[in-house]
Design goal:
The protein has 187 residues and is α/β, with parallel strands linked by helices. The chain has helices at 19-30, 37-46, 50-60, 67-79, 95-104, 117-125, 165-186; strands at residues 8-12, 33-36, 86-89, 109-112, 127-130, 135-138. The strands form two sheets. It has a four-stranded parallel sheet, sandwiched between helices. Strands 5-6 form a two-stranded antiparallel ribbon. β5 (127-130) and β6 form a beta hairpin. α2 crosses α3 (50-60).
């Protein structure tokens, strides 16, 4: 009998490009498992796993979670997906992560989202988040039913420091610098 083929997809894109939404649509349309690095981080932080505790410390200090922590989380999860096709969202973000992924998994499809700088800036500065779940709202095209409040829990929404306009430009530049080698790798 033929083993059913596992299909692996990666969605690359800057903050605010809609990676999560597009990954979800791909997952639904093609029956893939949607694996989001942000969701995993939140789950691990909530469960106080080793990686979660490490990540929490970084985030509290305002640092990015180190490559190797995210890589370990994502690859551990992928290794357990022996029967299921997947789409990765938010990973790999750096060349080191991409190389680690390539050495342990076969990536069949890479979608790279190319969105104008101005559009991203606009989207991010109108983005509000429910911290506990990671649910995102956009005041322009996906606002909550009640302003400032999560639809499901009724808890207050926050705006990330790094979604504030001054920070957005720096974040997008940083993304561009680290993403270029990843995009080139998959070309």
């Amino acid at each position: 009998e033929m083993a059913s083929k596992i299909f692996g997809a990666v969605v690359l894109g800057p903050p605010g490009s809609g990676k999560g939404t597009i990954s979800q649509r791909l997952a639904q349309s093609f029956g893939l498992q949607h694996l989001s690095s942000g969701d995993f981080l939140r789950e691990n932080m909530a469960a106080d796993t080793e990686a979660g505790v490490l990540a929490k410390k970084c985030i509290e200090k305002g640092h990015l979670v180190p490559d190797h922590v995210i890589t370990r989380l994502m690859l551990t999860r992928l290794e357990s997906m022996t029967r299921h096709s997947w789409v990765l969202d938010g990973f790999p973000r750096t060349l080191a992560q991409a190389n680690a992924l390539n050495s342990s998994c076969k990536v069949d499809l890479v979608v790279s989202l190319n969105i104008p700088f101005e559009t991203l800036k606009e989207r991010l500065s109108t983005r509000w988040i429910h911290p506990a779940s990671g649910r995102m709202y956009n005041m322009e095209f996906n606002p909550p039913h009640v302003e400032g409040v999560d639809d499901i829990t009724g808890e207050p929404l926050i705006q990330h420091e790094d979604d504030k306009p001054e920070a957005v430009v720096a974040r997008l530049r940083h993304y561009r610098d680290i993403a270029k080698p990843v995009i080139d790798l998959y070309k």
